[in-house]
Amino acid sequence: MSDELLATAVAAARAGGEVLMRYFGREGLEAEAKAENDLVSEADRASERAVVAEVRRRHPGHEVLSEEAGLLATPGGGGAGRAGHQWVIDPLDGTSNFLQGLPIFAVSVACRREGRTVAGAILDPCREHLFTAVRGGGCRWNGRPARASERAGIAGAFLATGYPFRARNALDVYLAVFRRAFLEARSIRRCGSAALDLAYTAAGIFDGFFEFRLSAWDVAAGALMIEEAGGRVTDLDGGDAYLASGNVVAGGRAVHRELLAVVRAEADEATLDRLVPWVTAAAGGGC
Question: What is the C-alpha R_g of the chain?
């Protein structure tokens, strides 16, 4: 069954990627603000329709949670709930990059069953890089096994992050974390697509990753990939509630351990909840 779910995730991600490449670089592409500095475009919505259609074609009774459409009811009524299947979809992760013509964006598709992510695919359509994972079956990058970093710690690490544009009240805390990480790591990159950051962390390109207040569709597929590649993903308290809180610390096991200590010197889940109250549903945490 997991292989069938992975095949669906791959097909859906490719369907979305094909749509995005038809829009990429098009002049006059309309976009609107969902919130301050959070844009959605015609391309996001067209990709979403293609991804959801592929999932629905193969699994008509499954629930779908997608960034633009939200939680879509199953045909015929009812819902998957925690005991069923739910697809968690980001049809265009990196919209700002996409709209500026920067070729760093992705389609992320994950399937969750009984509250756990069991299959996922992340596609970088510009470079045709495909990352996949099945729970218990490992992680692959373009069909080859992927492994998280085996670096012994944060010293000399190549890290990735994302700026907390959804959590501006936590900016001072984030900058304090960034400063500590910056002083210990070799370098830190901000590419503008959390899904790709997580995929490249699973592949060992990035040794570790941290970001505040992401959504479930940003994280679900990539987190599974890191775990299946031998790494770790947690929230700021070292727990597994990162899909609900949107706060993510990830990396190879040794890097994760030290990066989490760096983060916790400045922040924890209670601090983020105080500074940036978070509605679980907004993060897709109910999946």
Answer: 18
How many Å separate Cα 227 from the centre of its chain? 13
Return the number of other C-beta atoms located less than 10 Å from residue 68's C-beta.
Answer: 18
pTM, 2 dp: 0.92
Q: Is the dihedral of CA 151, 156, 160, 165 positive or negative?
A: positive
Name the residue with tokens 């391309």.
43
Q: Note whether 212 and 161 are within 8 A (CB).
A: no
Over the range 17-44, which residues count as b (16 or more CB within 10 Å of their CB) and which as e?
bebbeebbeeeeeeeeeeeeeeebbebb
pLDDT, residue 1, reads 67
Q: Is 137 exposed, middle or buried, given 0-12, 13-18 or 19+ CB atoms closer than 10 A?
A: middle
Q: At which residue do the structure tokens 């500095």 appear?
A: 37
Place of tokens 């987190």: 223
Residue 249 forms beta bridges with which residues? 210, 234
pLDDT of residue 154: 98
CA of 102: how far to CAs of 24, 33, 97, 277, in Å? 9, 19, 5, 32
73: which DSSP letter?
Answer: P
Report DSSP letters for 189-202, one per residue: E--S-HHHHHHHHH
| pLDDT score at 70 | 73
Q: In the chain, how many H helices and how many E strands?
A: 9, 15
* 10-residue mean pLDDT series, the chain (287 residues): 92 98 83 58 91 96 85 56 81 93 97 96 98 98 98 98 92 98 98 98 98 96 98 98 96 98 97 85 35
CA end-to-end span of the chain: 19
